[in-house]
Specification:
about 550 residues, 8-stranded antiparallel barrel, 8-stranded antiparallel beta barrel
Length: about 550
């Protein structure tokens, strides 16, 4: 029995359009990294793939918002995505529909449109219609590969081997459009690559599209012009249980409070609450806008447990309240089972924040930065050039879990016992001739050797042969002084070791003792304060406070 799969693919050249179906010469399943690495002139390390030169389909007619539910395959397997914000255009003559986001959370396809032709209850996308043209270039700007993007239904034989393409068919049911499958198989859209030699490569998939008209609220909260806005630090844990401390804002307009970083993973839309006495109550169903094409809403949530099969908390919506103390610190009134969340229109959780504490921002003070973490080292992936890479995560938090200003945060790389010096002769995209310390979020001019990836990981690609361990150290600079984290080392086998630099001069980095937690008052330079002045900011027991 033949099985049909829906997918997007890229072709270097297409066969004559006289046949209804397109037949592939070869079809090999690879990852996207393998596709890029297998390009011609692979001795040159590829940067990000070149952007497509132009979209070839322009939508026309009336635009309407739709919610799309689908299933996508990522590195951990199949994952449902609900409530994707899809735009559809309907031609004035009623004969065409233009689809704009058939590949949720995988491709940045907002400007790639596929045209569907309406015939009764059938909407057909012609697999021969080219929708995007892409040219991949090497470091010298030479075109080493061309691809064409098409949408088609992938044909698979009894052994599961793809052998060709057919047209895509959506079923129209009133205002709903969906892929009508008749067996138990998932029906995916796949990103397909046919390279210059006409070999075919599949590297990502999306399944079971179902589009329905969007009927929800589209209004974001607006901050009143009369509101006073101050900087606050939002402390909590993100969806994955990782502690964070970030700078945000709180707007106050009479008894109305507005929070812009209560769910930092969901963006910075204002979430509104109303104060009565020392209690702030947040209403549910507040629209947060879109994130990666998803419609998101704020709701308080009370959980009764965690469903490991779906990756979702079980429970129900509830109104959350916060308490405000005399110092202006705002704390969530909850036990561990209530927290704010961002939701799809279908009710699926997307982001959550735990143990919220929001406190006035009192300025930058001395602090040791938290250690880099989740280090990954890859050695000699281009052995001819001795090229290696290390990637890691770095938070702008102190070792005590407090906010530190990311503008003052740097990092450096160690090879065994020495800080590594990057020289422009070997790393031509640097902004300076020699660099040892890189600002938080640094990207070199080519976004090539040293950069921050889209997932927030810092990446360093370096060309050295002789080392046993590679380490990363965070450095916080404030008031002309430097405070270093532990050096976190990783070796080729993935073993992690933390080394605390000694006080004093250590390879150019000076360690400074912070005031001890003894109840004494210190100024922001770490000097003991002989006369404490009311209204001034001091450090006491490791915390910045305003003297009363």
């Amino acid at each position: 029995m033949k099985k049909a799969l829906l997918f997007l693919f890229a072709a270097a050249s297409m066969m004559a359009a006289s046949a209804q179906k397109i037949t592939f010469k070869n079809c090999n399943v690879k990852s996207f990294d393998e596709v890029v690495a297998s390009r011609p002139n692979a001795s040159i390390r590829p940067a990000a793939p070149a952007k497509a030169s132009n979209a070839l389909v322009t939508p026309e007619g009336e635009m309407k918002y739709y919610n799309m539910n689908a299933v996508v395959r990522d590195i951990v397997g199949l994952m449902p995505v609900m409530g994707v914000a899809e735009k559809l255009y309907f031609s004035a003559d009623g004969k065409s529909i233009y689809f704009g986001s058939l590949f949720p959370s995988i491709l940045k396809c907002e400007d790639i449109w596929a045209k569907g032709t309406i015939n009764g209850d059938d909407v057909m996308i012609d697999c021969y219609d080219e929708i995007y043209h892409l040219e991949v270039m090497d470091a010298e700007g030479n075109v080493v590969e061309t691809r064409q993007l098409h949408v088609g239904e992938l044909l698979v034989d009894d052994r599961g081997n793809p052998y060709g393409l057919d047209d895509v068919h959506f079923t129209k049911d009133g205002d709903r459009y969906y892929i009508d499958y008749t067996d138990i198989d998932l029906r995916p859209i796949v990103l397909f690559v046919v390279e210059s030699n006409q070999d075919v490569t599949v590297f990502t998939t999306a399944y079971n599209h179902d589009l329905r008209p969007y009927e929800g609220n589209t209004n974001l909260n607006e901050l009143p012009a009369s509101a006073s806005v101050s900087e606050y630090i939002y402390n909590g844990q993100d969806t994955y249980g990782q502690d964070f401390a970030i700078k945000g804002h709180v707007g106050i307009d009479g008894d109305d409070y507005y929070f812009d970083s209560l769910l930092p993973e969901a963006g910075h839309a204002w979430i509104k609450g109303t104060r009565k006495g020392n209690t702030i109550t947040l209403e549910n169903d507040q629209f947060l806008g879109t994130d990666i094409s998803y419609y998101l809403y704020y709701n308080g949530f009370k959980t009764t447990g965690f469903d490991t099969s779906t990756g979702q908390y079980k429970g129900s919506y509830t109104k959350l309240t916060f308490s405000v103390d005399d110092a202006g610190i705002i704390t969530l009134n909850s036990s561990n089972n209530t927290f704010p969340c961002a939701f799809f229109p279908s009710g699926n959780q997307f982001y959550a924040t735990f143990q919220n504490r929001i406190e006035p921002y009192l300025g930058d003070g001395a602090a040791y930065p938290s250690d880099p973490y989740d280090l990954k080292l890859v050695t000699k992936y281009f052995e001819k050039y001795g090229e290696n890479s290390i990637s890691f995560l770095l938070d702008y938090m102190s070792s005590e879990g407090k906010y530190i200003n990311p503008d003052n945060l740097y990092y450096c790389m160690w090879l065994d016992d020495d800080i590594y010096n990057f020289n422009k002769s070997l790393y031509p995209y640097l902004h300076e001739e020699n660099m040892k310390y890189f600002p938080y979020g640094y990207k070199d001019e080519g976004n090539y050797d040293i950069y921050m990836a889209d997932d927030g990981r810092n990446v360093i690609c370096f060309r050295e042969d002789m080392f046993v361990q590679c380490g990363i150290q965070a450095v916080y600079r404030i008031d002309g002084k430097e405070y270093g984290s532990n050096i976190v080392y990783v070796d080729e086998e993935g073993n992690i070791e933390k080394v605390a630099p000694e006080n004093g001069e250590t390879n150019g980095l000076k360690r400074i003792e912070l005031p001890a937690a003894n109840g004494s008052w210190y100024d922001l330079y770490g000097r003991r304060a002989a006369n404490v002045q009311p209204g001034q900011v001091y450090i006491q027991n490791g915390r910045r406070i305003i003297a009363q």
